[in-house]
Design brief:
By secondary structure, the protein is α+β, with helices and mostly antiparallel strands. The chain has 9 helices and 24 strands. β2 and β3 form a beta hairpin.
Length: about 450
């Protein structure tokens, strides 16, 4: 997922993007949940031929548990992430894949039902949408269409586990509810802020949620075999109040009788109250200026789905049409590259504010998510520049501001060299106070 290839794709989004056609070409890895450097789930293309057994990965290669099942007229089908044969579960047939700037869609056949898995990570580039863009959550929508309009009874399950935490079971798993949502959290009460393991954050709270208003949702936690057996037998899950750190956190939705098309949506996320340590001061995600708690942000995000989706169709089609217009000869191929790059670009960044100044203007921190993990690297900002020139040039100022503010400090406190700094630290969560920044100096 080389981030540096943005230099080419970037001349880019002279793109704001407006008429249709998602790309159907093969790409090295398909973005699933890609919202920031620590919420970055992908599906390697070499697993695409059999999605039922495919295993998503974090951008640095760690496997992520994310099974998705559908129960159709009492028969259970695996749609994603069930790598081993389980009695009673039938692998669905993979039909194809497509992607746009913000959506990755897999088409499958499960007996009498056509199923699509829509992995949607919204991109809101406008300055008025900084808080919305900074929300660390991504959508999964499972749509089921009845073949020949026959009547189907449908239930859908999705689940995650501690592999999303990089803590090997040290995070406590807890079920939670709001008046509108059901969700799980993985969080280690003894976490060490601003730490990583293999580029994954080892602190913060992993979130997994679904809506409950007007829905028939259920949830449970437990070993996979128990969870899957419950779902296979009844299509519903037995609520548990106590969970273990290695348990599967599972959510299910009963879609009832389907004669046309019906769907349900889940959300996966990664919340870090202490997001960035910049110049010795803690910064948090800019979304906290509007949605200060986990229940707040989950309810907003799930409730915003229809609006976010409507916006994405216009955004994605504009990206496609503007990119195709670059050339009569190679515009379509160029558009394929552009569409594959939008989530990768915005998913490498976080918008943050000082934790004690939530009303402040946000800063933007960009992590190299394919090489050494450096933050706000000057040459990477330069390579991504055309994306922001096209979509919102203010991002360039917000990316450069942390570099310039640090460089403006007295040499005894900040950057001591006569040449400009190369980056401001290694690791999105590991920016120490006044020292350790810019260990790779750019003397040119």
């Amino acid at each position: 997922m080389a981030f540096r290839f943005l230099g080419l794709i970037a001349v880019l989004l002279l793109t704001q993007i407006l008429s249709g056609n998602a790309a159907n070409v093969s790409i090295p890895s398909y973005p699933l949940a890609v919202k920031n450097p620590y919420l970055s789930a992908w599906l390697p293309s070499n697993q695409l031929s059999n999605l039922a057994t495919a295993e998503p990965q974090f951008w640095n290669g760690q496997n992520l548990t994310w099974p998705i099942l559908a129960r159709i007229n009492g028969k259970t089908y695996s749609l994603l992430g069930v790598p081993s044969a389980i009695p009673g579960i039938t692998p669905a047939l993979t039909l194809g894949a497509s992607y746009s700037a913000t959506h990755t869609v897999f088409q499958m056949l499960a007996g009498p039902a056509a199923i699509s898995l829509d992995f949607f990570s919204p991109v809101f580039p406008a300055s008025t949408d900084y808080a919305r863009q900074s929300v660390p959550l991504s959508y999964l929508t499972v749509s089921v269409t009845s073949s020949n309009h026959q009547s189907l009874r449908v239930q859908v399950l999705s689940a995650i586990d501690q592999t999303w935490t990089a803590q090997n079971g040290a995070s406590a798993l807890a079920p939670n509810t709001t008046s509108r949502s059901s969700y799980f959290t993985f969080q280690n009460p003894h976490e060490t802020p601003f730490t990583e393991n293999g580029d994954m954050a080892t602190y913060g709270t992993v979130l997994f949620a679904t809506h409950t208003v007007g829905a028939n949702a259920s949830s449970t936690c437990g070993v996979p075999s128990t969870v899957f057996n419950q779902f296979m037998q009844s299509g519903a899950l037995a609520t548990k109040q106590t969970c273990g750190g290695h348990d599967l956190a599972a959510l299910s939705q009963d879609l009832g009788t389907v004669t046309g098309t019906s769907n349900t949506t889940f959300a996966v996320g990664f919340d870090r109250t202490k997001a960035i340590n910049y110049l010795g001061k803690t910064q948090t995600g800019y979304y906290r200026s509007r949605w200060p708690t986990i229940p707040n942000v989950i309810d907003f995000f799930l409730g915003d789905y229809s609006s976010a989706t409507a916006y994405s169709w216009t955004f994605d089609s504009t990206v496609r049409s503007r990119a195709e217009a670059v050339s009569d000869d190679f515009g379509e191929q160029y558009a394929d590259i552009i569409e594959a790059s939008v989530r990768q670009t915005f998913g490498a960044m976080e918008l943050t504010v000082p934790i004690d100044q939530l009303s402040a203007e946000p800063q933007v921190f960009l992590k190299e998510i394919s090489s050494d993990g450096n933050v706000n690297t000057v040459d990477v900002i330069f390579q991504s520049w055309p994306v922001f020139v096209s979509l919102n040039p203010e991002y360039i100022r917000l990316l450069l501001q942390p570099l310039l503010s640090y460089s403006a400090l007295p040499k005894s406190q900040g950057w001591p060299q006569p040449w400009f700094i190369h980056d401001i630290g290694v690791g999105m969560s590991m920016l120490p106070a006044h020292s350790g920044y810019g260990t790779h100096a750019d003397k040119t």
